[in-house]
Design a protein that fits this description.
The chain is 85% helix and 0% strand. With 510 residues, it is an all-alpha fold. It is globular.
């Protein structure tokens, strides 16, 4: 029971921080879209696959390894795992940042096919080592199930990023200078610098081991044995994702769009529509971050019953949130895109992509469970298959059908990824929930809540507020509240306490 309480508390802290960070980032994206325009957003979004490659190469594998080894290490050795990983990550990220700075022009022209990305990549190069510091500390604290510091660092990073960009845009506007994507990347650099400094300052009393890497040679080897396969897998995936990002504008041009139009379309899809879709992911990603150390510990103890209960809980929770979001984006998607971003296309993309929500919010958690079980190769091949499906859709359908080909590819790949993930975790499950609890009752609650709220708003004009955006947000909040109330009346929530009951039962029997 105590372990589950720690898991729940950590998830709650990360969820609150994630929701607040996504909430701020959501309005930040609206501000950026208006300041940069659709084409500027497209240029800005092009650099993130490069950032992902740098992160995969230098940090992502080590972050997971630090979290896993810290989870079951003795108390006096937990810091040693952190500093061993941090030492290696800083070496790799420093070298990667230097390469990115020196070859920014080549990457912008020949890989991204957009020379205006060169100054953005040079700024990004400075953020790579700072990002590694943040990631390593976050992995260590998540391994300890101490989520307060990573949550605070996440919020600080978001506040600094938004504040820096707002200040720079205000100065440039007063001086009559154009607002460029470089300002947004400058904000990203400020956020990474602030969060890294916060992590180092907060743990200032524990930094002695940082300057003696030889002391942790054996731990470095252990971390590398786990991190290198993860790094290779994630690097392969991010390179393919980067190729995918570069292929979308190029194939949109083959469909008849100009360079500016293709970048604008790409910016609307990735910087606007997907920002909406990923907003609820703050909840599921918080669970994902906590699942890896929890599953690792339970596997080490041989507690197969609790592993099964945790997997089933994760699937139920992901489907519950995903079905709600699918209904919201399907019903309100056009209004969200038009009112908030002033882009009708963003709303149309939201409506089309709304059907991936039930599987989108499941896949990250399923991958985290598989990592906790040590099945990293399974997640790699699952994600590889998903990316290859998207790339095939881009190459085969985008030249003929335009942006719809991209949307079809996203839908098909996410469905495939979710089904492969469920298949991979199924040997560790002893199912106790039926299709009615997982799908049918949430769908019934969704139809009843949307239909009921629409009927109430028609019968009672007092619910119509003065501003259209307030009406939209009020409708979404009312649907959400009604959805969970109906689920409660259906008796679904008692199943969401299933892992806790499992744990309690075990304690009583012992």
């Amino acid at each position: 029971m105590k372990q589950f309480s720690i898991f729940l508390k950590g998830t709650l802290i990360l969820t609150i921080a994630g929701l607040l960070s996504r909430f701020l980032g959501f309005f930040y994206k609206i501000f950026l879209a208006q300041a940069l325009g659709a084409e500027g957003m497209g240029i800005y979004q092009l650099i993130f696959p490069v950032f992902s490659v740098c992160h995969a190469l230098t940090t992502s594998g080590l972050e997971t390894a630090i979290s896993r080894f810290t989870a079951f290490a003795r108390r006096e050795e937990k810091d040693a795992w952190l500093y061993a990983g941090l030492f290696m990550s800083l070496l790799a990220s420093g070298a990667t940042g230097l390469v990115l700075w020196n070859h920014a022009a080549f990457i912008a022209e020949h890989l991204l096919h957009e020379v205006r990305c060169e100054p953005l990549l040079r700024i990004l190069a400075a953020a790579v080592p700072l990002s590694s510091i943040h990631a390593c500390f976050a992995g260590a604290y998540l391994g300890r199930k101490q989520t307060g510091i990573p949550a605070a660092a996440q919020l600080l990073e978001q506040f600094l990023r938004i504040g820096t960009v707002w200040l720079l845009c205000s100065i440039y506007t007063q001086q009559g200078r154009p607002i460029t994507p470089s300002l947004a990347v400058g904000g990203l650099l400020a956020g990474e610098a602030g969060s890294a400094l916060f992590m180092l300052t907060f743990t200032g009393g524990e930094r002695t081991g940082l300057f003696h890497p030889a002391k942790y040679l054996e731990k470095c080897r252990s971390l590398l044995r786990m991190a290198l396969p993860l790094t290779g897998n994630r690097l392969s995936l991010t390179i393919l994702q980067s190729a995918e990002a570069a292929l979308i504008p190029l194939n949109l041009q083959k469909a008849g769009l100009t360079v500016a139009e293709s970048l604008s379309m790409y910016g609307i899809l990735t910087g606007m529509a997907l920002a909406f879709l990923m907003f609820p992911n703050a909840v599921t990603s918080s669970i994902s971050a906590m699942l890896l150390p929890v599953i690792s510990e339970e596997q080490a103890r041989g507690n197969t019953k609790h592993i099964s209960a945790t997997i089933e809980y994760t699937i139920q929770f992901g489907l519950t949130i995903g079905i709600l979001c699918m209904g919201i984006f399907l019903h309100y998607g056009n209004s969200l895109g038009t009112i908030l971003f002033h882009e009708q296309l963003a709303g149309e993309f939201l409506v089309t992509l709304s059907f991936i929500c039930p599987v989108l919010y499941l896949t990250g958690n399923l991958n985290s469970i598989l990592h906790g079980l040590g099945k990293t190769s399974v997640t790699f091949f699952n994600q590889l298959a998903s990316i290859m499906v998207r790339i095939l859709f881009i190459l085969l359908f985008v030249p003929a059908y335009g942006i719809q080909g991209v949307l079809w590819g996203v839908l098909a790949s996410q469905l495939l990824l979710c089904l492969l993930g469920i298949r991979a975790v199924s040997p560790y499950m002893n199912p106790t929930l039926g299709l009615d609890i997982l799908v049918l009752k949430p769908l019934a609650a969704l139809f009843l809540s949307i239909g009921g709220i629409d009927l109430i708003k028609r019968l009672f004009p007092a619910f119509h507020l003065g501003l259209e955006v307030l009406n939209l947000l009020l409708g979404i909040c009312m649907v959400t509240a009604a959805y969970f109330m109906i689920l409660f009346m259906f008796g679904v929530w008692r199943f969401l306490r299933f892992p806790a009951k499992m744990k309690k039962k075990k304690i009583y029997n012992s």
